[in-house]
Amino acid sequence: MTLPRTNWSGNVVFGAAAVVRPGSLGELQELVASRRPVRALGAGHSFTPVADTEGTPVSLDRLGGSVDVDAGGRRAWVPAGATYDWVGSRLHAAGHALANLASVPHVTVAGACATGTHGSGPGNPGLPAAVSSLEMVRADGELVTLRRGEEDFAGAVVSLGAIGVVTCLELEVDPTYEVAQEVWTHVPLPGRATRSPSCSRGATASACSPTGPNRTRSARCGSSAASKG
């Protein structure tokens, strides 16, 4: 698989020519144990070179997996390479939701947690706060499980990919909920000429009236599309 030349914003140019995509956990373990260095690659969204490497970049998009909610409905195991929109839609279909989501839907769960991504809403903790356990392939190829409260757990969750390749994470979940979005359009800025913007995504048609600032509530949407806060 050819590696994209840059991240989403174009300010980071990746050094490796291609990315390896193991098709099973066993393949991943063999790869990690036999090559140096190995760097797990998520969506490539970060505006820092944290995912770049002169060694072997690894994508987990072929490992597959499912969203498995525990019997009590309070936690769910999710694949590390899954994106938040993929996880959120499956949780919502099962009557569950994450308390907070990434502000963009295409980033991977493991990548967002490993880099301490903030998520959405100033009153919510960062995305790594939802992690209660994780499974990781260490540099020697061994698969280990770390749980909240253990000595090395916190550093493993926000590790920047430095101590192993995370394969799945257990996240705390809530009952599903709905949120509403408020969109303001045609708000004048002091001292600046204003122009009429296009309708904001999700806004009702009334948000695009030709005069004056307008406030509108979009149609309510499920937790797979937005987060609290």
Task: Lay out the secondary structure.
Blueprint (H helix, E strand, L loop, with lengths): L24 H10 L3 E4 L14 E4 L8 E2 L5 E5 L4 H10 L2 E2 L11 H6 L16 E7 L5 E5 L5 H5 L7 E8 L1 E2 L2 E2 L2 E4 L28 E4 L3 E2 L7
Structure description:
The structure is a single chain. By secondary structure, the protein is an alpha+beta fold. It is 14% helix and 22% strand. It has four helices and 13 strands. It has helices spanning 25-34, 84-93, 109-114, 153-157; strands at 38-41, 56-59, 68-69, 75-79, 96-97, 131-137, 143-147, 165-172, 174-175, 178-179, 182-185, 214-217, 221-222. The strands form five sheets. Strands 3-4-8-6-7 form a five-stranded antiparallel sheet. A hairpin with a 5-residue loop joins strand 6 and strand 7 (143-147). The longest helix is centred in the N-terminal third of the chain and has 10 residues, at 25-34. The chain starts with 24 loop residues before the first helix and ends in a 7-residue tail after the last strand. The model is unreliable at 195-213 and 215-229 (pLDDT under 50).
